[in-house]
Amino acid sequence: QVQLVESGGGLVQAGDSLRLSCAASLRTGSIYAMGWFRQASGKDREFVAAIRSNGDSTRIADSVKGRFTISRDSAKNTVNLQMNSLKPEDTAVYYCALSLLALSTNGIHYQYWGQGTQVTVSS
Fold it and tell me: What pLDDT digit, counting tens, does each position of 46-67 carry?
C-alpha cells in the first residue's frame, strides 16, 4: 500500500512563509509525478503545483505563481512546497498526491493521496 505522509502545515500570519513536505513510500522509478492540491472550507479542491519525478517539468497554478515553489528530492522520495508571501486566501487543507501516469493539474490523474495538512493564514 502506497503511503504519502505530509508535514509542515500550521498557523502563520499574512506575508509569512511555510514549507510543506510529502514523503512517499514508493520506489522513485514508479512515480511519474507528485503534486499538491488544496481545499478551502466550503470550496472545491484546487490544483496548486506538481512536478515530474525527474524534476525536469513543473506545473504551478496562476493563483500561487511567483509565491510558491515545488521541488523534489528523488533520493528521499520527497516533494516539497515552499510557500512565501502567504495570504489569507491560501488558507486550506493541503493534500499531497502521487501519479503513476501523468504530470497533470487534474486530480483525477493522481492515484494516491495523503491525509492532508492544515495551513491557516491570518490577516
Answer: 999 999 998 899 999 999 999 9
